[in-house]
Structure formats: structure tokens, C-alpha cells
Amino acid sequence: AQSVSQHNHHVILSEAASLELGCNYSYGGTVNLFWYVQYPGQHLQLLLKYFSGDPLVKGIKGFEAEFIKSKFSFNLRKPSVQWSDTAEYFCAVIPLGSGNTGKLIFGQGTTLQVKP
Amino acid sequence: EPEVTQTPSHQVTQMGQEVILRCVPISNHLYFYWYRQILGQKVEFLVSFYNNEISEKSEIFDDQFSVERPDGSNFTLKIRSTKLEDSAMYFCASSVKGPQHFGDGTRLSIL
Description:
The structure holds two protein chains of two kinds.
Chain A: E1 3-6, E2 10-14, E3 19-21, E4 23-26, E5 31-38, E6 44-50, E7 56-58, E8 64-68, E9 73-78, E10 87-95, E11 105-106, E12 110-115
Chain B: E1 5-7, E2 10-13, E3 19-24, E4 31-37, E5 43-50, E6 53-57, E7 65-68, E8 75-79, E9 88-95, E10 101-102, E11 106-110
Parallel strand pairs in B: 2-11
Antiparallel strand pairs in B: 1-3, 3-8, 4-5, 4-9, 5-6, 7-8, 9-10, 9-11
């Protein structure tokens, strides 16, 4: 079955530390990849996406992610986190191909807590 | 920036009662989705809707669930006879094609 796995459930960092959140998916075909963020009390917001082309994609607020096809991975990175990055981060995949309707398959989420 | 809006933000209902969750997708979007997130668990796909019909549904979306786009703007999720395990955050999403835009969600609490 298609699934998305996020390696870290809860990450605690100090401000200015570097961040990397792991994400792996299981699907042999072509995918669209996403990272969404959910700030406390707010809705899911798109951080960045990968459809095709350069596997290193840049998103909002200084985030970037790298698609490594051979590893089925799409890890999220930020060189220097801020207290305002405290949120829940979700990796998500849309499997492409016949029969797929654009549904997002989510990972379980990673809670990031940034200490000032 | 246009947004997906959901009402109500919080719904408390007795077990066995019917509940309707409402969503207004972004106006030029064509694809519509419902997801839910049980507390502490991942966001799960429920159903996708395109061209006035369900295009895919998950095994969670059983006969107790239905969706409707009654007037070309609203997109509703109905649970016919709620169960305790239906307590969750329900998210509506819409897209033209590609990234989905999410509403703030409706927190459904079943007593």
C-alpha cells in the first residue's frame, strides 16, 4: 500500500540550529511531493512542492527540500530555525498514474519545538 | 489570497445524530477533498470529488458518509449516524490541479 513515513515525531531545537526532517514514501511510480506546515491554531499551509525538474526545491520562509528518487525520500531542511517555526510539519505525496485522483497521502507529522 | 472556508469551527453532537460539515472551496477550483485527523494521528484521506461525483473514497468513507455540492459553491460532508470514533478534525481541501488548499478544519466532538 502507498504510505509516507516521517522519521521524527518530535524535534526540539534551539534558535539558529539547523533542521532536517526526514520523509520517505512507498510508491514505485511518479509522485508529486509536498511539505505542509500547521502552526498552532491554524490550517495546513503549503511550504513547498516538487513536481519535476530540479530535485532541490525552495519554499517559503527559508525552507528547502531535496527529492532523492533512488531513496524515495523528500527531506525538509532549514539552515537556521527561528522560534516562529514552532509548528507541526507534514510530508505528503500524490501518487500519479491511472486511477489516482489527486488524493494526498500524509505522513504522521513531526512536531517541531524551537526554544528561544 | 482566496481561502477555503469551513463551518462550523467546532461541532458537538450526540452519538447517533446526523451532522453536516460545510466547506466553501476556492471559486475556480475543480477538485474537492475531505480529510480527517483523529487526535494524535495522521491526516487521512476520506473522499475526492470532481465533476459532481465521487472520484475516489477511502475505506473509512462507508455508507454513513456522503458528500454533496448542492449549489456550485458549497461542498458538504454528511455523517448520517455519528459514532464516538468519528470525533476528529475534518479538513476540506480544493485544487485546480496540484497543490491543495486547506480550510481551517471543523473539530467534531461526539458525546
